[in-house]
Amino acid sequence: MTERAEFKADLLQSIPSLRAFAMSLAGNADRADDLVQETLVKAWHKQSTFMPGTNIRAWLFTILRNEFYSQMRKKGREVSDADGALTEGLATHPEQSGMLDLEDMKKALQLLPDDQREAIILVGASGMSYEEAAAVCGCAVGTVKSRVSRARNKLAEILKVDDSSDYGPDSVSIHVLAQPAVG
Is residue 178 in some structural domain? Predict the structure, then answer.
């Protein structure tokens, strides 16, 4: 496989992780897709600067993160909706408990400081190692570990999670899932 074909394959393989990270940053599927597209275009045009044998995921996540912050700086003159009041007035709440839990988690993530949110998304949601996340964030591994720990504690506090029984399927869902399949 040529270097160019391998680079393309690595880009395509990274799309789901990039999209998940973009969703956590942007909080909107359309904006996340735009971020991923910009990231892929920039990566493709700058592939000569990528060092084969290094971590392409960390490189791509860094491009995405920088693009997000660039866009945020540009949006500085737009109407701010920091507390989500405008957005919340436009949204309808889903009926399923899982969707409600997901919304609670999204809101809780937005309450975290930027550095903690970024660290927990990279490590917890994107599955990066602490070392990979440190490379993306441009800081020491210990700093990422500390940020993830503080983020976990803060999320538990915000979501009022005391132990593992406070999250996951409720007792009704567990009962339904435990029933043998009919047919």
Answer: no
